[in-house]
Amino acid sequence: MNATTYTARAHTNIALIKYWGKKNEELILPMNSSLSLTLDRFYTETSVTFDERLKEDLFLLDNSKKNSIKVSKFLDIVRQKAAISIKAKVVSQNHVPSTAGLASSASAYAALALAASKAAGLDLNKKELSRLARRGSGSACRSIYGGLVEWQEGNDDQTSFAYPIKIPTDFEVTMVALVISTDYKKISSRAGMKRVVETSPYYSAWIQNTAEDLNNIKQAILERDFETFGEISEENAMKMHALNMSAHPHFSYFEPDTIKAMQIVEKLRSQGISCYYTLDAGPNLKVICLKKDVQVITDFLSDSFGQEKVFVAGPGPAAHLI
Amino acid sequence: MNATTYTARAHTNIALIKYWGKKNEELILPMNSSLSLTLDRFYTETSVTFDERLKEDLFLLDNSKKNSIKVSKFLDIVRQKAAISIKAKVVSQNHVPSTAGLASSASAYAALALAASKAAGLDLNKKELSRLARRGSGSACRSIYGGLVEWQEGNDDQTSFAYPIKIPTDFEVTMVALVISTDYKKISSRAGMKRVVETSPYYSAWIQNTAEDLNNIKQAILERDFETFGEISEENAMKMHALNMSAHPHFSYFEPDTIKAMQIVEKLRSQGISCYYTLDAGPNLKVICLKKDVQVITDFLSDSFGQEKVFVAGPGPAAHLI
After folding, report:
1. ipTM computed for the complex
2. How many CA atoms within 13 Å lie on the side-chain side of A140?
3. CATH number for B22
4. What confidence tier does B318 reach under pLDDT thresholds 50, 70, 90?
5. Which residue in chain A is spatially nearest to B245 when comparing CA positions?
6. A-chain residues within 8 Å CB-CB of B18?
7. Nearest-CB residue to B259 (from A208, A238, A255)
8. Inter-chain contact B255–A259, Cβ cutoff 8 Å?
9. Residue A115 and residue A47 share a domain
10. Is residue A258 scored above 70 in pLDDT?
11. Averaged pLDDT for residues B198-213
12. What residue ranges in chain A does DSSP mark as E strands?
């Protein structure tokens, strides 16, 4: 086998209907289906070379050598599919503004899935790539596609994968990301969702309710109803964060500035600007809005937090080789 | 009937197991039982005089004349019990530091229930007083008693009342109240809990779970286990506030400084000080602690927020005539 290098680029995605809890930790099967927007601004580029001269897998992230245990475990899945046992060199670069704190395991494992499968001689279709990326990080299965993407929970490895949702042409959804902190998370999303599944008295209601949210948001997309789309997204995020507050021990990703930013968005909304917020396993707020309102929203957030904390991102493309 | 004036004093109470939702709006029957601590520091004094010369009820609060519609409606219940139809003068004074924002309808209606029933010639026992106070404001039924108090939800007017929980002598629970804002509430507790009951997908789980919290906290009190007592209180409060975030439309009483104060309490706790927080339908935090730790907690909160924002309160007495 030739030691050919393949390089892939995959973009990060932000869930509008949240994934928060696994029904299978090993296969990363989620407790519920989710829906996300892939963003153009933030992406990971990863090169993979299977090289028989290597004694062990090598992993370089942003130009420095990293512990490769998780990457190796993922490569093992690829090697098994390709029936090879060659070690690989993985070189990965996050293209995220250094202050943004938006580097994500979603873009990382989507890029790795594409580059590694090609380098291993596999030619997977998108559904297969989505399944593979999922094994590295659940939300990575959504970053295989561009724009709005649904991840159907499925019941096993075969049936749990993502696919794109067609965005109506005049539905110009955009995101304004506000970076509040780039600190390490107090509790990782993996640990946080696990604690929630195991201890929150609200969890079974969440599962039932979020399925309704998913149906309703897909209907809102079909009807080009941006207000309903935004409202469902914001309320779904709040219901997810409510789970964390109801866990034992309880926890929260909110920082004082998270509340301040939420209040700014609510105020803008009360003034007639259609904007809604969502946030994940961290304090940073993402504002969902229409392209025409990006300027006024970035202006308001920049005034309060500094323009170096505010980033605009539109819908991004599918993972692709470069 | 002589126009005799009776004056009563009742203290505010802070719920540790929260009341958040009614099953009967007219009778103010709660969806779940609750448990509170009556505080010594904050109270209302109310004088009531039934006077045949009055053409209508008169209500003075903190030396200024107020709309008497709610007070009159409450007096109607008293008049009905006493079989009189005389109008009354009600003079009420809140004894709460002016910046504290801790004036409460609980102390107000407990004092009014005691003073008005006596002035109307009734001689109600505590259980009857608790039932009567409940009709003005649900949590007022707990302010009839001092110290730790349980309000059993009941099924009708007769069975929904409060009673005291014996505090072990060496269980010196104290509260440090941090005032974050004295602004009017964005949404009243009455409206907030109603929205939650009607729209939160988590509400039925809350009802089930909070009954467990109540049993567990009573056991912790019996066992003088302050850590468990504090932990249950804090988590019950967080589960209540999680309900607000899951309502439609969602809402929250958190301000940026609420999060900041929670983080300070969590940090003190990680340093070995047994302190826990609770909060109600507003941004102000109440820290539950032992008497011996009051100084270090007030020092830390004063450093961050100013000493004029920090108030210490111990267990307060039952409502009484003065």
Report:
1. 0.94
2. 27
3. 3.30.230.10
4. very high
5. A238
6. none
7. A255
8. yes
9. yes
10. yes
11. 98
12. 5-17, 22-24, 29-30, 34-50, 58-61, 64-65, 88-95, 148-152, 161-165, 173-178, 275-278, 285-290, 310-313, 320-321
Q: Quick one: pLDDT band at residue B168, thresholds 50, 70, 90?
A: confident
Give the minimum alpha-carbon distance from B275 to chain A in angstroms, rounded to a whole number.
15
Co-location of B299 and B158 in the same domain: no
Q: Is residue B295 exposed (0-12), middle (13-18) or buried (19+ Cβ within 10 Å)?
A: exposed
Q: Are the C-beta atoms of A228 and A220 separated by less than 8 Å?
A: yes
Give mean pLDDT, residues A278-292: 94
- In chain A, residues with a C-beta closer than 8 Å to the C-beta of B201 are 202, 205-206, 208-209, 239
- CATH code of the domain covering residue B228: 3.30.70.890
Q: What is the pLDDT of residue B101?
A: 60
Number of domains chain B contains = 2
What does DSSP assign to residue A97?
-
Q: Which of A235, A239, A259 sits opposite B259 (nearest CB)?
A: A259
- The answer as to whether B320 is a domain residue is no
Looking at the fold, whether A150 and A188 belong to one and the same domain comes out as no
* pLDDT at B3 (0 to 100): 80
Measure B186 CA to nearest chain A CA, in Å. 12
Asked whether residue B71 is domain-assigned, the answer is yes
DSSP bridge pairs for A321: A8
* Structural domain boundaries enclosing A234: 173-313
In a domain, B83, yes or no: yes
Residue where one domain finishes, among candidates A168, A196, A221 = A168
Q: Do A206 and B202 touch (CB under 8 A)?
A: yes
Closest residue of B to A249, CA-based? B235
Please list every residue in chain B whose beta carbon sits closer than 8 Å to the beta carbon of residue A238: 245-246, 250
Mutate to test the interface with A, among B203, B252, B263 (most CBs of A within 10 A): B252
Contact A54, A88 (CB under 8 A): yes
DSSP A209-237: HHHHHHHHHHHHHHTT-HHHHHHHHHHHH
**Rounded average pLDDT over B42-58:** 96
Stronger pLDDT, A189 or A104, i.e. the higher one: A189
Q: Which of A168, A196, A215 is the last residue of a domain?
A: A168
Residue A322 lies in a domain: no
pLDDT at B248: 98
For B186, name the nearest residue in chain A, comparing CA atoms only.
A263
Same domain assignment for residues A47 and A137: yes
Q: In B, which residues are within 8 Å of A241 by CB distance?
A: 245
User: Is the CB of residue B209 less than 8 Å from the CB of residue A201?
Assistant: yes
CB contacts, 8 Å: B232 with chain A: none
pLDDT tens sequence across A198-231: 999 999 999 999 999 999 999 999 999 999 999 9
Strands A88-95 and A58-61: parallel
Cβ contacts of residue A301 below 8 Å, gap of 6+?
A176, A178, A261, A264, A287, A309, A310
Please give the residue of chain A at the shortest CA–CA distance from B243.
A242
Give the chain B residue whose CA is nearest to the CA of A208. Answer: B201
Taking CB atoms and an 8 Å limit, are A245 and B239 in contact across chains?
yes
